[in-house]
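Practice problem: predict the structure.
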Amino acid sequence: MPFGAPQIQTLKITSSDGLYTNLGLLLSDQCLHTVKAAVFEGTDQSVFKDRREFSGSLMRQLDEAYDYIDFHNRTHATFQKLLRVDTRDYPEVAVREALLNSLVHRDYSFRASTLISVYDDRIEFVSVGGLLPGLELEDLMMGISACRNSHLANVFYRLQLIEAYGTGMRKIMGAYADAASQPQIMATNNAFKIVLPNMNFAATAAETPASNSKQAPAASHSREDEILRFLAEHPSITRREARALLGIGQSTAGRILKEMVDRGQIATHSGVAHCDTNWRNDVSLRQLPTLRSVRAGITKASRDHFPCFGKHKTCF
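Answer:
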């Protein structure tokens, strides 16, 4: 599909005079907004287990935030006679729709970050910007589609990330149709929250605390062991090789490698790996997994190119 100056202008990424719009800023690496994600111990925010902040292009934030949630979206196995049934804590379709909603429909005139909080019993998505004037929560459940950022939504629609038909909330509720706990959707004048219950929480809560506390590290350590075994037979490993080896996303692979470096299990020297369990940064670390063509055209944009930033909400 061609993607040149005419297409960029049609999508409102640039204006008729060739300057990048606020939408162009959001899709560039100079995007001023971020997504903050954290994993908490238990069901409140007393103890942080992990936290991350995602910046750059909204497409990059979308991809990396989803990988982060997916990494912490554990699988619980049950048995029905001879068959094993695997159930993830959170339905992937519900996570996808909640994350997309928090990025596409938030109010970008505020600098506050989108927040993703993962607890033992739920995951919460909080974005700035309440319902549009005249809308009620019941209207969303009926499929009413009203968009605050119409040009941004159009880009996501062209990339086949959303349907732009008001189906997101119904997909979330449909994913929990047979679940004991149902999603909650809340809105204030300036914020919007989606709460997804952990479908396996009742089952995992019945297990002993010692067994429960070992589940997450076990999965992480097994991946690290795989990397160490690979390095025992190879002089180096790249992020792309780790991704293929473990069958995980590129961002997740990079995070595991970085954590191993931080703990001193592996190290990097001049960006090149050696046989003493080092890994190297290769070109893939700088490549974005989605919307490469868009970002290639706008990645060098600076805030000086956006004279309308902060003045016209309609630029989005």
